[in-house]
Each structure stands twice: as C-alpha cells, then as structure tokens.
Amino acid sequence: MAKNVTARIRNRQIVSRLHAGDEHAIAAAYNQAGDKYEAYADGDLQDPNSFQGQYAYGDRRIWAVLDDKLRTLCSKGARSIRILDLGCGPGTWLCRLVTRAWALGFTSITARGIDIADEQVRRAQTRSRNLAALGGVSLDFEIGDICTRLPEADESIDLCVCLYGVLNHIPRDRLPRVLAEVARVTCGDFVTAVRAVGSTPTIFVDAVEEARWFWYDRRASRLEAELQNGRRISFDFRLFGAAELKALAAAYFELKDLRGLDLFHGRFAGDRRWNPPSSVVSAQFAGELERLEELYCRDAEFVDHATHLLLEAAPRKRGAAVDNPKMTCVNSTLRLRLSDRCAHAASASPPEARDVNRQP
Ligand SMILES: C[S@@+](CC[C@H](N)C(=O)[O-])C[C@H]1O[C@@H](n2cnc3c(N)ncnc32)[C@H](O)[C@@H]1O
Predict the structure, then answer these.
(1) What is the pTM of this model?
(2) Residue of 35, 62, 166, 177 best suited for mutating to test ligand 1, as the one with most atoms within 8 Å of CB
(3) Pocket flag, ligand 1, residue 30 (CB < 6 Å)
(4) Phi and psi at residue 342, in whole multiples of 5°?
(5) pLDDT digits (tens, 9 = 90+) for 106-151
(6) Which of 105, 251, 313, 354 could make a disulfide contact with 349, Cβ separation 3.0–4.6 Å?
(7) Under CATH, what is the fold of the domain 2-353?
C-alpha cells in the first residue's frame, strides 16, 4: 500500500516535470470550467457588482481601489482612459471598469482584455456586446498570452489590472519579463491580486469541495485534481509571499500599497452546509472582522495568511535607479519588512529591467 502511494507520488512528480510551463493545460482547465468558473469566482452573474460570491470581501476591497483610481483620474479632468486587463478570464472586472468609467463621464474609453483560455474570452465577448456598443467605448477581448510582448505602445495604459491568480500561473523565470512589459506599457497604475502563500487550499477553477481529491506538488508548483464530475485538471501555479511579490515588483514599479485580502472573513464566515445557522456571522461580527482585516492586512506576521495579496504600483520613471525596496513604498503605513533573501532577489533583478523592449 505504502509502496503504491510512493509510486503514485513519483509518477505525479514525473508528470509534473513533463508538464511544467504548459500554458495549454491552464487554458484547458479554465475553458472546461465554463460558466461555472464565473459563478464560482465572481458570484451573481446577473448582478456583477453585488459582490456576494465566495471572494466577496476581497472583491469589495479591490473594487474600492479601482473605483478610487477611476474617480481620481476623472477629478483631474481626464475624459479619456485606456485600460488593460491581463488574464481577464470571463471579463467580469473589465466590464465593471468600463461600466463605471462610462457612468463617471469618460467620453473615450479604450479597454482590452486578454486571456489564454479562448472559451473564457468568448464568454467575455458575448457578455460585453452591449457595453462595447456604447458611444465612445472601444472594448475588446482577445486570446493572448501575457508572457509575450504586448502590442500596446510605451506608457499608453492609464490602468492595468491583473487580478486573482493570473500571476500565480506564470513560471517564476518568466515573471520579471511579464512585469517589465507591464511597466513598459503603463503610464498610470498597475493593480494585481495574487493567491498568498499561507492561503487556504484552492483548485482555482472551482470551489474546493468540487474536487474528489487534489494534490499540490509545492516543489514542482503544480496542482492536480479530480473533480466530482470525473474531470481531471493539472496545471502550474505557485503561491506568493508578500515579501517575494514586493521584491519582484520593486524592480519595475514604485509600490503604492501591498496588503492582504481576506485574512479573517473566509475563515470565520461559517459554512451553511456544516455549521448551525446560529454560527453564521451576524452583521456585528462581520463588522468586527472588517476592523481586524484593516488592523492586520499590512502586518508582516499576518499578511501571508491572507487569501490574496493586493498590490498597487506605478511604473518607475525611465532610467530611475532601483533603490533598496525597503525604501520604495510610498504608502507610509506599509509595515512589511523584507527578508535579506528577498532584498537580494530584488537587487538581482534590475538587469531584466533593461530588457523591456526585447521580444520575450
Ligand atoms: C483565476 S483566473 C482569473 C480571471 C480574472 N482575472 C478574474 O479575476 O476573474 C486566472 C486566469 O488567468 C489566465 N491565464 C493564466 N496564464 C495566462 C497567460 N500566460 N496569459 C494570459 N492569461 C493567462 C487563465 O486562463 C485564467 O482565465
């Protein structure tokens, strides 16, 4: 029995090595998830701004940040905006952004979402038809790999988003180039959310209880799972520590904020399938959780235990020196401290920054 288990694990490790870097497996997994992915990730499909899904707390925090960025641009007199969504999935976030920008009075909105999962891109195209037909709106969803050079011109994007786990799927050795490319095309802000190293288990494409079994090979950064419907998924993903994310981004961006999303809500929410109704959180308890989230979301001891990490950044000015990342955060409330190892990783990265114009 023990021998069988060892053999199975060894086989999986071999499969893992063979598949490493296989973006087709990632695309296939999200394609097969179909509509269910959107319901799992974004909640109510009829009302995408109701923020009632499994990640409601994180969604609301991200939306507050993005909404603020649109309002700030608007208050500065901007009436034209260009938005890029990397790994847009079914397009929920880009549609939210375009809808809001239009409501705020932007008269020229150019928005593009790309994703390697063609079925999800098709879903985004279908759902956005009415939005794309609004006057002044140019909204496109395209199949594309964020590991390749982006067609956008230098410093042409006012807001670039890459939300919920996209960067978790990018092999470690490709991340600097992806971030360099984002920094090249962005003149405004970059907002990304990644799954944190201390988060609870996930199978990414659906709720974890939809898996008969799952297995995460941490060394190979590969997830294997079998869903209740018998479908198998197997793809690359790696989890991020806050210090690591900060060190990676600091080579290309001035960091504005880095915080944990959902340290407490997901764990304390109560599960209606299991807990008695009396243990499902009251409004008062939810309010208290919110207070705790704000208290600990930037605390070095807690941040890696969040479900996601939310990073806000602006590209470094061309030719600007990369300082010690401890000094680069413009948000004075950020209490993270990098380990020596991560500081070293950041200082080893700048040569990549000079590669931004080279074809990956
Ligand atoms: C967890 S989903 C998030 C989707 C969307 N950003 C959202 O928040 O709803 C991750 C997405 O990243 C996409 N993805 C993974 N690797 C990619 C790559 N190299 N280029 C483009 N998209 C990628 C997947 O196809 C998937 O749609």
Answers:
(1) 0.84
(2) 166
(3) yes
(4) -70, -35
(5) 999 999 999 999 999 999 999 999 999 999 999 999 999 999 999 9
(6) 251
(7) Rossmann fold (3.40.50)
